Amino acid sequence: MVRIIQILIVLFFVGCVSNRDVVLVKQIKSTNSIVLRLKKDKSSIFSLSYPLSFKIRKTDNRDIYYAENSYLFHNKNLSSGTAGCYLMTCDEDNYLTSSYKVFNGSTLYIIDKNDTLQKKLSGYFNKMINEKKDTIHVSLKEFNSNFKNIINNFFEGDSIFLHFHDHKKWHNIPLRVYFNQ
User: Fold this and answer.
1) Over the stretch 91-116, which tens digit does the pLDDT of each residue have?
2) Residue 137, beta-bridge partner list
3) Distance of alpha carbon 145 from the chain centroid
4) CA 5/CA 51 separation, integer angstroms
5) Alpha carbon of 132 to those of 36, 45, 125, 135: distances in Å?
6) What's the rounded Cα separation, in Å, for the pair 18 and 47?
């Protein structure tokens, strides 16, 4: 009888520990700006940095931390390679808690060889040249309302894999990235 109770207790605890949904992630609207940067020779806009924000929390008692991500560009011609996306917390502590923690970052698009994007963003290019600036910040609201066609044709379809670790196992969370929030 004692042996049966021990087996039931072990089964109960093993059955309650699941590797599913160890981490919950929600993309939220970012409060940061779009950043446009000129090429060194100031002949065109080199890059567009689009802000991303996520709320992340753990669902069990394990020590779980955010390690890195893999960003998958829908439009590979705009890919910035290995530096595609970075995320970090305000306190720079990547360990998750049972409460949501906000991770802010951005995705870097290399746009200097895309004539369509250069033409659509020429107003910002001219402003940077006239003001002798190599960088300009554009509010997310302004960009999203004025350039829905850029978002729909060049950015929509991007995905991100968020990689978490609990000191024993990797937990990879795939997400579609949303731009029109």
Assistant:
1) 989 999 999 999 999 999 999 999 99
2) 35
3) 21
4) 54
5) 14, 13, 10, 9
6) 42
Query: Which helix (H) or strand (E) segment is 165 a member of?
Result: strand 159-165
Say if CB 109 and CB 47 are below 8 A apart. Answer: yes
- Return the structure tokens found at 131: 């003001």
Tokens in use for 82?
A: 């290995």
CB 163 within 8 A of CB 67: yes
Q: Which residue has the tokens 């590797």?
A: 19
What are the pLDDT digits (tens) for 127-166? 999 999 999 999 999 999 999 999 999 999 999 999 999 9
Q: How far apart are the first and last CA of the chain?
A: 58
- Asked if 54 and 86 count as a contact pair (C-beta separation under 8 A), the reply is no
Residue 53: count other Cβ atoms within 10 Å of its Cβ.
18
